# Entry
Amino acid sequence: MRNLVIFTTIAIAFVVTACSSDEPATGGSTTVAAPTIELTAPASRAAAAVQDFNIDFFRNVALYDDYKGKNVACSPMSATMLLSLLSNAASDETAAEIAAVLGYSDRNDLNELYATLATKLPSLDSKATLSFANSVWYHKEYTLTDNFSSIAKEYYKADIFKRDLSGKTIGVTDEINSWVNDNTNGLIKEVEVRLPTLSTLINAAYFKADWKDKFKPENTDKATFKGVAGDSQIDMMHRTGSYLYERTEAYEAIEMPFGAGAFTAAFIMPSGDLEAFIDSDALSGLWSNKPNACNIDLSLPKFKIAEDEEINLTNILRDMGVKSLVNPGMMKLFNESPDADFFSVNQKTSVEFSEQGAEAASVTWTNSEISNGYIPVSFDRPFVFMITEKSTKTILFAGKIMSL
# Structure
């Protein structure tokens, strides 16, 4: 079986010939510059700050008690976009907590960043599909503040829905879930908006792209995945190609491009316990060790994580520092002053990797309330995956695979 043990028997001279800093990581294709996004200086500073939150958010989700030892996927991008929108309706205390957790205090710069990303990311790569949608649903007896309504529409292109959220009108929940279904291409069909409620803010993200160089289905075969729940037989995809590759004492990582190269998937397999690895700072240093393009004989599981169960982010965000969401009156959505309960934040995520490429969707919402010259790399035990926009390093989706 091809695995990391084989790697340790390969001579140093061979590794030099298999990896070259001058060799482009193309997956076997002719190198073409990947599309990039140009940000203003303030938006660029905000993006750099939020990168740390992306990793920290994934770490907190992956290590939360409910998900220890289990597969889980999340969308840092969806969470940050919703939190940024939410901060515009928050009290000074809650807005300050959100800013501290996101790592950037200028709300206007965050608004500009997510307006730019929501506008430019979907058209960045003609060979990939990426879309974002935001919506604000609020009870018909109230009126949104002009400031929040204006920001939601201008920066976040939010759909605004004034509805009876008392729970007495039939069809409102169906309408909300129809919006969710439409904006995730059916990957996430419904979310639990608990009525009655004063409002719900929803962010939906959808991604689909073919690999720059696809796997051939005929090369997929059965293999053993050594998960924490025991060994299992899985469908393992195989291909050879030149990929960005990094190997340290702590982990082995490979980056695979989608489409025209604007979006990539990283797969990271630690040398020891996966959750201990996630708890360390190693992910923050990914690709900082001058990785090379290497000839790789790759074995990658074909898998899907479909989250039927929502992730309750309220406690996770509280642990990260957004503590006042659980306090009544911390949101200032309305001109009126309704006696609101606390806000809860939830997320559902679905991710699938196949021979063709990847498809993923996430909804975040609130309730008020090496042979032949190739290095063998086989992801046949627990690993991390991340789908990223390369130029801004925005993590769209991330997850851990403990068992298959």
Summary: Residues 41-62 form the longest helix (22 residues). DSSP finds ten helices and 17 strands in the chain. Residues 1-17 have pLDDT under 50 and may be disordered.
